[in-house]
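Why run this: before we spend reagent on co-expression, it is cheaper to look at a predicted model of the complex and decide which construct boundaries make sense. The entries below are exactly what would go into the expression plan.
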Amino acid sequence: MRFLLNLLFLGLSFQAFSQNLLHTYSGYVRDAKTGEELIGVNVVIPSLGEGASTNLYGYYSLSLKPGIYEVSIQYIGYQTKTMKIDLNKDLKMNIELSENTTELDEVIVTAEKLDQNVSSVEMSVAQLDIKDVKKMPALLGEVDIIRSLTLLPGISTIGEASNGFNVRGGNTDQNLILLDEAPVYNSSHLFGFFSIFNADAVKDVKLYKGGIPSRYGGRLSSVVDVRQKDGNNKEFSGTGGIGLLSSRLLLEGPIQKDKSAFMIAARRSYADLFLALSSDPTINQNTLYFYDLNAKLNYILSDKDRLYLSGYFGRDVFELDDLFGFDWGNATASLRWNHLFSDKLFSNFTLVFSDYTYSLGTPEDDEFNFRLKSTIQDYHFKNQYNYYISSKNEIEFGIEGIYYRMKPGEITGSFELQLQDEFALEPSVYFSQELELGTRWTVQYGLRYSSFYNLGAQKVRNYAKPDLPQLNELIDSEEYSSGQIIEAYNGLEGLEPRLSANYRISDEQSIKASYNRTRQYIHLISNTSTPTPVDLYRPAGRYIQPATVNQVAAGYFQNFAENRYEVSIEGYYKDFKNIVDYRNGANLIFNETIETEILPGIGRSFGLEFYLRKRKGRLSGWLSYTLSKTELRVENDDPLLAINAGDWYPANYDKRHDISLVLNYQLTKKWDLGMNFTYQSGRPITPPEGRFNFEDYSVPVYRSRNSLRIPDYHRLDLSANYTPEKDPNKKFYSSWSLGFYNVYARRNAYSIFFQQTPQAQGATTSSFDTQAVQLAIFGTIIPSVTWNFNF
Amino acid sequence: MKTFYKLGFIALILSFAACTDVVELEVPQTAPEIVITGQLSNTDSCYVRISTTAPYFSDEETTKISGARVSIWQGSTEVALLTESSLTAGYYSSDFKGSIGNLYHIEVLVEGNFPEKTLGTWVSVFDTLRDCPVVDSIRQATLSRSTTPQAFEEGEYALMYFGDIPNVRNYYRLKRTLNDSVFAKEIIVFDDEGVDGIYFGSGIFPPISIYGPFEEDEMEIELDTLVVRLESISRDFGDFLDLVNSQTQVGSPFDAPPALVVGNIHRKGDAEDYAFGYFNVVGSNTNGLRYKP
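The model came back. Tokens follow.
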């Protein structure tokens, strides 16, 4: 804590020193057409070689000596604005930028600063412009932000039907996915085929793989920060589309022009209509669809105050005729208040509610009916401050508190049953400072301190061996009252230092390095290859320890040809502690003694990531390559509990080689073509080393976890987008997107499973013959067509 | 629960043209190990089968172990010595039946010219022979979707009436036999969580539908006979059966990860040197239905 105070003191000293000499040039940068605040806009004073970027709310602040300056406001995809300012006192200026009209020889593919790759202290960051994502080939034409991110180095999924994604050897539950600062617990629709993010409603998405800023915490491997559109405060407008899988519509407009705006977006799939076409009565009577709703209001209260209220509600619904129903989804709400205490001190107060619920059961009007419901809810309070001491010195600090309420299971209906609710509190405090030291060095150092309290009311079981709880060694149980601390994690292990450094070799080359330690206090309890919607998070407590990872990364970054090309090579090493694995045959659903099914393990991951990107010209896109290795280890004195006899084994999602090539070619003003090619090493599976007969079953003998690999995965997708010339007299315009997923119809293995032959599975046979069967999710080319419109 | 989930998934991927292919794979092989399975109940003769593991893709029968000494122990007393069948190698049986409430285990001594890892004395973990509720009746009834949503097709069904034993956690296994043929590849295991002491077949709890609808051709067989055997099993055996089920009923991305299926038998004096298989001790009751067209 003393270190933190010293840092704060250092920052304040700078402030005292600088206040006497400098004036502040500050304000918001907005889109001229919609009034949307723009994130990451470069506000540069060319004569000084100094500048600042707008923050996540579009705010910038520069402290400069008095004088007359030429200011250049640059943002990719927008016309650069240049103006003179007379800074003889503090100057507040809100700036509006107009979008570029696309020219064939200047197709822009990113919203970053042109030399961001080299100049920023940030490393291990994946960022995509939503406009680019919309041009990429997509499964069934459904623009998918998460799937697009997996084409960047270090990010992958197990396969097509996978809930979540893996970042640098991290499990899917190690990603903090934030939608307008609200955590989202399941980022997938339809069993992992599509993401929950409606691209029309998203303004900005950024994924941190390493060098994670101290303002983020609670997950080990990554942070995905998704920001919804604020709403057009200039004029009413709409966007929508009709595709093979779903239709969508977004409406936005001013409530009070230039002062307040709304945005509402809805999407609904109609996969259930496809099911109805099946001749199989066990399929055609089923219902399966998803829908989601994004909404946002924002209100400019004054020059210093702005209010945002945003929400998301999404559901997947599956009904097996009128026999059985199953639904799941996220709901979030965020209330944020930006306040400027001064031109240099920007603050944000946030209240967040997040809910993930699944429910399944029989219709209520059944004579014998039941419904199982399970929920995780959390309530957040955040208060963050950004203090812009000078253009070379920025401090960020804040506090955060999360209160969790988890309802692992509750059955209602003809009979009632309930697992104990679980409660927890996760307070944290953080600080970071970004400093430019001379002309070559930029450092960002910070510290986050997090703690965690598992709270009552709850009955906690005591076992003979607390380190290895076993059902047959249950001693007794203790009652804890509401709010009483059951287990506290508030020691020094909660310190999470973060450090990033950039050494700029030249304007076009830099070397960066980072270290971060992150803690995770809630674990997804999931024992399948890919998580399912019925998997739920459980908090750290008496028997489940918080997980920790230490990550170091270093990289070389270079831009060529006036920033038209960028190249980076990054290497990383991660060391995981207390990750969760499971006993053989663990029963995780509606289990009140979940601690008896869990085994703690460790992990390690290391890799090399190569990224080449062409940013301008008719042809744009990138090539990424990741070489990585991720291993886990679960040791135990009991040989039946130790996995792989206690040796290291590859993680389910370990893929040695991962290559993606993404290209977009602007053929004419009306046509652009897209291509994705991806190649990945096969993921590991566990082969049987023998079999034994039990009754009529051939039971495989598995010992060496993940010692075999499925065939390598590769796939080519193509797309063509047709955008007719806009009629300047009409507000309405539309475009078409054609797509072909899996062009050469490869039957990529999702998994290989081992079973008795169909003949041996017959009810009347006593054969024990076995076979290996490869499952491919898509065995053919998947065409798509989508009509998009704007007005 | 995950079954319904899998159903949804399968429905979805079928609409996306998912496919499966049988593939040739080379998998590692380990030396043969001993496999012991068997059952002791209060109603039937007890039996034990002894064999070895085999390479996974081998079409050959597993090796049967003959000449073993197999005995049943009640507490610390040997109460029965099983004799090997002259017709089926590795199959040992005895007329001995267990009694409710007693603890039993088996002891198996393997000697002779068999794989090295199978040799020695093997014992099962003590298990209690549990009381099993009486299956009061199996009745024939006509069901339709309008009256019983679970009845996908209208027709004649067999319904089981029984009451759970109250105030004790019970785990049950149901075995079905149609015209003297046991339903193969079928593991039906359930417990009384949330329904302790409930009678299935009165009040809001309907009887359990155990078979149906009878097929047309079955309806023409006047003496169609369905027999149901309800077994009261241990939780450990229930977990073992669940594990067998999860490791053999595979084929979706949401399968449980491969796991070593180990039962309750180990080398005498060394609990960590396990055998494959399970010796289960069950209380059981049987009832049946002769179908009337």
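The longest strand of chain B covers residues 279-290. Confidence is low (pLDDT under 50) at residues 1-7 of chain B. Bring this page to Monday's planning discussion.
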